[in-house]
Design a protein that fits this description.
Blueprint lengths: L9 H15 L1 H8 L11 E6 L2 H7 L2 H8 L3 E6 L1 H13 L7 E4 L5 H6 L7 H5 L11 H6 L1 E2 L2 E2 L2 E6 L1 E6 L13 H11 L7 E4 L8 H10 L5 E2 L2 E2 L4 H17 L9 H9 L3 E7 L18 E4 L13 E8 L6 H11 L2 H8 L8 H4 L2 H4 L4 H13 L11 H8 L1 H7 L4 H24 L1
Parallel strand pairs: 1-2, 1-3, 8-11
Antiparallel strand pairs: 3-13, 4-5, 6-13, 7-11, 7-12, 9-10
Helix pairs in contact: 1-2, 1-5, 9-11, 10-11, 11-19, 19-20
Length: 439
Amino acid sequence: MSTSSQPLSRRAFGRLAAGAAVATGAGALSACSGGGGKPSADAPLRIMAINHVWSQAIKRRTAEFEGRIGRRVSMTLLTADQLASSYNVKLNASGTDVDVMMVRALQEQLLFGHNGWLADLSDRVADDARFAWDDFQEAPRQASVTAGKVLSVPVVTERPALYYRKDLVEDLGGPPRTLEALMEGARELTRRKDGFYGYVGRGQRSGAVSQWSSFLYSYGGDFVVDGKSGIGSAEAVAAYEYYGRLLASSGPPGSTNMSLEQAMPIFAQGKAAFFVDADAIYSSFLDPKVSRVRERVGFAPFPAGPAGAKPHNIPSWSLGINTFSRLRDDAWEFIRWAAGPEMSAALQSEGIPGARSSVWSDPKTLSAFPPELAEAMRLNAERGVGYDRPRVLQVGRARDIVGRPLVAGILGQSVRPAVRDADAEFADFLVRDNRHKES
């Protein structure tokens, strides 16, 4: 799942890199920089990736790729924080000791592209008919482009799913198809005295923004409209008010402190009727070790709002090439292999949701998912918007501003004053963020 750690400015990167040099010795950074020319055949292709089911599956298969290119592969799997820290140091030092980079197109790509740290892949994807760039879903494909350049290739996608209790919706006529029906059903099923809630979801100020985005789009709003803040629009205000009422009237106490890690167990333990969050977490509700709703959980597409059903459909993780790499051709061969049609189909058959349209239209690649979930994922992908947060350099700061009215609504406060203040602050933020882009 996507995380919300804030990308640093180039100046902050410099301070971090300088601190690392003091701690580990200047030799560590000079070793990263290297000289020109292609490394010897003994030098490995170095891949840095998040420790994720996708990268784990790829790592088990690297011997196959090594046979293709005749070069050893060194693949390092790290936590999100470790990965960010490593990139910070290596890229600011123009390091050559990483070739393929697993990145979040919606979190750090804009900053990395602005700083010239990701190689332009536009010609490579355009000139490679077998790679079939047009086969990638439109929303993730568009998210791979920064300033008119393809800077990454999506490998893992994510959408919101509506998780629901099958045993509780029969009297409601089935799972809610609209946000209005979701509100009514959640209120009807809430039994606070019994510790049972109609709805559980993220309410933490910054962490809730990505999931709230689907509500925002389905109300007809957006984060940014014509380059200016869109969160003060009538549509955005309505989406803020809706989400606040939903959790205020039907959610558990302490919702404003809940990220995914706090909200998910409440549904898994059978204490909530509805839950909207990433479809990638579905297996948690089927695992008898952690779930009490294994036989009763259902899966449905994101409900329609006044503007229709417009969930996000994002590339949660993508592959890019370090612009300082001296093995850029081999790095591209790795991306062609790891994100190619054959590998995408193989991994989706193992339950890892991919980014290619072809894998979503092949029954064989969908067999790993519960049928109801597979259909919900397919529909959400067709309807999806390719981002779930503001597309800015300082993503973490933007999320913090945008998330403030969500907290007000969940606490039962008037949303409009909070929106007015947040809209003004976000408008000022966008002016400054755009100046940084131009610098």
